Amino acid sequence: MLPKSAPIKLCLLDLSTLGGSYFIMYRELPYFKFNPAKWLLGRISCEKEQIQGAFVKVCCIYWHEKCSITINNLYQKYHKSKVKALVDRNYITVEDDIVCIEFLDEQFEELTDLSDKRSSAGRKGGQAKVKQSLSKAKANLKHLDKDKDKDKIRSKTFTPPQLQEVIEYFKLNNYSTTSANKFFNYYKEGDWKDSNGKKVVGWKQKAQGVWFKPENEIPKSKLKSLN
């Protein structure tokens, strides 16, 4: 039992498919945030347990790799068929061979920003102890050019889609051209940033999570005529 004077956060992750169980103990967060409400209300809750479990495991791998991994590396670390199933269902996206999981990218960016602030405070106050494990995560990112895959990861950028591409994607998922235009104009005018001012990483995931609502669906009468 730990004394009250030593508040250390503990996290036990059973990642048997990744090579065993890991007992991780840090003073900073070694884990990502999970919102049960979003999970239960989202599309993922309607999937089979195999898909749900695969998504959780891929998220663990992605976070462990500091949100930077190529699709080929992910295939090596987890079942290729299950990864492809998640890509086909748009639970993860792939841009220029780089895997993107938007909600984890946002969390990692927040932690990196926190690390920067603490490092700055340490320099001003002369307290080296302020520099915690998160600053090491940023330092590791600077050495991603050790191999070709990591070179690709460093150049991970977002390329805004064309309007026609957005319309076709919405139609493919039975959502209206009107909602596709609204989606495109909203993010284009906002320099492809969301309502919180954060840069959009995967526009398809953003469409799935925010814009694919019943009121934006193509009416069934029109769907019959289109078919």
What does this structure look like?
This protein has 227 residues and is mainly α. It starts with 8 loop residues before the first strand and ends with a helix. The model is unreliable at 1-27 (pLDDT under 50). Helix 2 (49-64) packs across helix 4, helix 5 (102-125) packs across helix 6 (133-141) and helix 8 crosses helix 9. The chain is built from eleven helices and four strands; from the N terminus they run ββααααββααααααα.
- Going by helix content, strand content and strand pairing, the class is mainly alpha
Helix content: 40-55%
Describe the global form.
Answer: globular
Average pLDDT for all residues: 75
User: Strand sequence of the main sheet, in spatial order?
Assistant: 1-2
Can you give me a brief rundown of this structure?
With about 230 residues, this protein is mainly α. It is about 50% helix and about 10% strand.
Q: Helices, strands, pairings?
A:
Blueprint: E1 9-15, E2 20-26, H1 36-41, H2 49-64, H3 71-77, H4 80-88, E3 93-95, E4 98-100, H5 102-125, H6 133-141, H7 148-154, H8 163-172, H9 177-189, H10 203-211, H11 220-226
Helix pairs in contact: 2-4, 5-6, 8-9
Comma- or semicolon-separated keywords:
mainly alpha, 227 residues, globular
